[in-house]
Design brief:
single chain, 301 residues, mainly alpha, three-stranded antiparallel β-sheet, 13 helices, 3 strands, 8% strand
Length: 301
């Protein structure tokens, strides 16, 4: 029996090296923008190691890179927050601005999403696959699917207890903190769209997190923000008060509670909470709280 075991181990080792070699070849072809060669490598790779996790991430990246298209535009106005080139006419007079944006072939993106979904099904603990999918959905502004992918990841974290892996199946240390801090950046991405219709998406994500991690202060704050922006001040204050119970010395939470009471036009409670901020003696928030108190006290009831 021993020779058979040795043979199996050698075969496995050979198979692993072969998969790593495919990945190196794929990256080398990518550095030369040789998509035809990449496609050829992927076909050979799939025949050799059809369940290899790196095969799925490589195919996903292949489709997403193919989906990216640079679109050059010329306008009479200078675009905001975009680098542009001033274009002059034959007499040297300003004629407009040339700039570019990235557009995406949605059908090609879908091929990548389909691939990574299969990868996630086979390797559910690979967090890089899940976050890669979220990233791409955000780039093409498919916010419903973006939100669903995040919620599914949060829910699965309750099953795998945050035993996440990353590229080449490396174990992700402190999985819970990494997961939640990463999702916080996605919440910020939704918030920065300044699209109020996406507040419900932020609520859905926050509620999914709180169902498993009820003491997650950032999610309580996010939930509060969605209500405050919608003008529902009473609902917005509730999660903040819960966050205060969890950490009564969190200056951001206390400041947000004070601000919520200001919005509600509850001067008395706003003053109470700004004074709590000052009592923390945090130089970063103390001056701000003192200024807010002066402003509130200068306003007649």
């Amino acid at each position: 029996m021993r020779p058979a075991i040795v043979t199996i181990v050698l075969l496995f080792s050979s198979h692993l090296c072969l998969a790593q070699d495919f990945q190196a070849q794929f990256k080398a072809a990518g550095s030369k923008s040789d998509t035809a060669k990449q496609s050829e490598i992927l076909l050979l790779w799939e025949k050799s190691a059809p369940t290899d996790a790196e095969l799925f991430t490589s195919r996903f990246n292949y489709h997403f890179n193919k989906a990216e298209k640079e679109v050059v535009q010329i306008t009479t106005y200078q675009p905001r927050n975009v680098e542009s080139l001033l274009v002059s006419d034959s007499l040297g007079r300003p004629a407009g601005y040339m700039w570019s944006t990235i557009d995406y072939d949605v059908s090609e993106v879908k091929k990548g999403i389909d691939v990574i979904d299969k990868g996630i099904a086979l390797h559910p603990n690979r967090l890089d696959m899940r976050f890669g999918k979220v990233y791409v959905l955000g780039r093409i502004s498919h916010w419903a699917e973006f939100t669903t992918a995040i919620v599914e990841t949060v829910e699965y974290s309750g099953e795998n207890k945050n035993q996440w892996t990353w590229t080449k199946n490396a174990v992700k240390e402190d999985g819970e903190n990494f997961l939640l801090s990463s999702i916080q950046t996605y919440q910020l991405q939704l918030y920065n769209t300044e699209n109020d219709s996406l507040l419900v998406n932020m609520q859905e994500i926050a509620n999914a997190i709180l169902a498993i991690y009820p003491n997650h202060i950032e999610s309580l704050s996010n939930l509060s923000i969605t209500y405050l922006l919608a003008g529902d001040y009473d609902a917005g204050i509730i999660p903040l008060l819960k966050a205060e119970q969890i950490d009564p010395k969190d200056a951001i939470v206390l400041s947000n509670i004070a601000r919520a009471y200001v919005l509600k036009q509850d001067k008395a409670n706003a003053l109470v909470y700004y004074k709590k901020v000052i009592a923390l003696d945090d130089f970063q928030t103390k001056d701000y709280a003192e200024e807010q108190i002066r402003m509130l006290e200068s306003v007649e009831d």
